[in-house]
Amino acid sequence: MAREDTRARIVAATLTTLKERGFAGTSTRAIARAGGFGQPLIFYYFASLDDLLIAALEESSAERLERHRAAAEATTTISELVALLSAIYREDVETGFIRVASEMVGAGVARPELAPRVLALMEPWIQLAQNAVERVLVASGAEGLGGAVSSRELALAGVTFYLGANLLTHLEPEPDAVSGLFETAERLAPLADLLAASSLGPPAT
pTM value? Predict the structure, then answer.
């Protein structure tokens, strides 16, 4: 148990450092200082700083995924999907995970060797979104939409929108601007539900 606690402490210190100092400022020295332990302890548990960063992102992402999985698996309308996406965004802002995600995406751009590993951690979210999209299409009778655009493409669009909003949060000087996008999307979502039911639903018999 002590070994697991120590590893968790290192991961927690890594996430704190990413939130406070960004990727550029997240060194093993900074992590050790944040966690109150020596640098050699990091390399006892992790082969490299990159391995530690990926592990921290993976564990944090997996925890968030499990927390939101039940809500995602219960969605049957566009409104519910948009509301869930908004809830995840608000939570990520409050917990600071939004910066962790942004910094690691940026790290994947700056360090091409990290890109495949960061991208792989997005796949469970894409799959969860794809399953939700498929349920919404079936519930609305709009399965035929798959002939024009696949459920995976729609899921990728949703994840891309979230990542874009995530990055914009750090660039937009007005803190409420991005959250306003989600609020607008939530207001418009019921209209999208109506359009899906009337225009894409099964023909009357």
Answer: 0.85
